[in-house]
Design brief:
CATH superfamily of the largest domain: Hypothetical protein, domain 2
Number of helices: 13
Distance between the termini: 42 Å
CATH topology of the largest domain: Endonuclease III, domain 1
Largest sheet: none
CATH architecture of the largest domain: Orthogonal Bundle
Radius of gyration: 18 Å
Number of strands: 0
Order of helices and strands: HHHHHHHHHHHHH
Number of domains: 2
Shape: globular
Helix content: 55-70%
Structural class: mainly alpha
Length: about 210
């Protein structure tokens, strides 16, 4: 039997109900945030290229750079391979990110194949590309492939949201949060959606920046 795929709001609602029943501390968070967003996005080369672009820059800057890349015709692996480094840098990318995007284009990833691959294989395939770490690979599996049981414990917002919701003395480490999230299986990606949403509640409550 294949892994559960989130395809619509009903799946997210099912996962939220399961979480509230199996981990009562999620119940008040879910009440506070209301229906969780689906957050699904397209998969493929552009999704990962955008993830690389967005590293260590603001959301607005990332969107502007992505728009320039698309306007410049950098919409697929072949076009990126054919483009010169100067052409790509002209879109606002650093030399390092140009190298990462070129490496992604050269990786020859079978994106259709990843849709049916085990999550562990998805992660291994993506992290083999320079510039793509575990966090990016987990977020891709979660939101581009719709995997229901993936978490990204290295995410600072998830760590901080968990600290507040579970009243922990300190922000959990990636290792600690990965262990906690194991108890939220088979709906870890819905737990992530809940914690991402709850982060904004916690931020307002505690003045988190």
């Amino acid at each position: 039997m294949g892994e559960r795929i989130i395809t619509g709001d009903a799946c997210v609602a099912e996962g939220a109900a399961w979480l509230a029943a199996h981990e009562p501390r999620f119940a008040p968070a879910l009440d506070a945030v209301g229906p969780l967003p689906l957050r699904l996005r397209k998969d493929g080369f552009l999704a990962l290229m955008d993830a690389i672009i967005s590293q260590q820059v603001s959301v607005a800057a990332a969107r502007a750079i992505s728009a320039k890349c698309r306007a410049g015709g950098l919409t697929g692996p072949r076009k990126v391979m054919w483009a010169s480094e100067d052409q790509i840098r002209a879109c606002g990318l650093s030399g390092q990110k140009v190298r990462y995007i070129k490496a992604l284009a050269a990786a020859n990833i079978n994106y259709r194949g990843l849709r049916d691959a085990p999550t562990s294989q998805v992660i291994d395939t993506l992290v083999a590309v320079p510039g793509i770490g575990v966090w990016t690979a987990e977020i891709y599996a979660m939101f581009s492939l719709g995997r229901a049981d993936v978490f990204a414990p290295g995410d600072l917002a998830l760590q901080e949201s968990t600290r507040v919701l579970f009243d922990l003395p300190a922000r959990p480490t990636e290792k600690e949060l990965r262990a906690m999230a194991a108890h939220w299986s088979p709906w870890r990606s819905v737990a992530a959606r809940a914690l991402f949403a709850y982060y904004h509640v916690a931020k307002d409550r505690e003045g988190i920046t």
